[in-house]
Amino acid sequence: MVEPTLDELTAGHRAAAIARREGDELTADTLERLLTKVQAMFREDRRRKIAADLEAQLMADGVAFRPGPRERIPSEILSALREAILAGVMVSADHRARGTAKLSRNTRLGPIAMLFGQGRQYLLAWSEYQDDLRLFALAGFERISLEPDVYERPKEFDLQEWLSESFGVWREEPQDVVWRFLPEVADEAAGYVFHPKQKTERLEDGSLMVRFRAGGRQEMEWYLVRWGDQVEAQFLAASGDPVSDTTESDAPQE
Questions:
Q1: pLDDT tens across 83-104, in order?
Q2: I need a surface site. Which of 73, 161, 203, 248 has the fewest CB within 10 A?
Q3: Mean pLDDT of 13-37
Q4: CA distances (Å), 225 to each of 5, 111, 229, 232, in order?
Q5: Do residues 216 and 249 make contact, with C-beta atoms less than 8 angstroms apart?
Q6: How far is CA 120 from CA 22, 135, 139, in A?
Q7: pLDDT the model gives residue 100
């Protein structure tokens, strides 16, 4: 076996730290066990040096030490869902909705993907009751059991395309979005990818225009707060007319 480099080992540990920070404890544990096995193959003197270098490198990255809120999701819930997704089977679940705290028992779902990220984590699944794709907060699952029934996702379904219709995880009718970042922050904003299908344009006054089409206006507004009065936002309906400021975004579907 070709001995992995320090950069390769560091990348593995960084990936484990990011997975753990985002609530995917199972992936983090699996990566760390793999890395431990790899490092155990080194000579003892090499293993000691690598350990010291890794610690210094990870301290420099700061990935494992950055604080931030995340939800606690039981590992048995993640294990059951991952097994169901890989096996392509339905699950029966008890799930408590975040907004109403209402507990739905024996809900039959066809799991498609778990969506991890900063803050809240979700399961994308086909709901037998609603006969449609829905997002379910992972922290809301109180019980999961695998069913013998096979679930096959629609052949034409593209996860990345589905996700690109939204900003974050909010699901609603997509709108044409136009953000204008003032010259004072245009260079900083140009370093971000706000949406995978965004188009950008620099104006003569130095400001930056960002255009894309997606739903999730409320989550966009929450995000734009951090830019203060240095950004102007406009939301256009399919007709091209501005959407009223009183329009409310739908909540995440759970």
A1: 999 899 999 999 998 778 899 9
A2: 248
A3: 85
A4: 42, 34, 8, 11
A5: yes
A6: 9, 11, 8
A7: 84
| Structure tokens, 42 | 């080194």
Q: Which amino acid is at 115?
A: L
Contact 225, 219 (CB under 8 A): no
The 10s digit of each residue's pLDDT in 152-163 is 888 888 887 887
Q: Whole-angstrom Cα distance, residue 203 to residue 182?
A: 10
Cα–Cα distances (Å) from 162 to 52, 79, 216, in that order, read: 43, 24, 13
How far is 140 from 116, CA to CA, in rounded Å? 15
Q: Can you read off the two tokens belonging to residue 173?
A: 């009718």
Question: Letter for the amino acid at 196?
Answer: P
CA nearest to 237, candidates 172, 193, 181? 172
Confidence of residue 197 (pLDDT cuts 50, 70, 90): confident
**pTM to 2 decimals?**
0.61
Contact 215, 167 (CB under 8 A): yes
Question: Nearest 5 degrees, angle CA 140-CA 145-CA 149?
Answer: 120
> What pLDDT score does 251 carry?
36
Name which of 76, 127, 134 is nearest 250 in CA terms. 134
Would you say residue 171 has pLDDT above 80? Answer: no
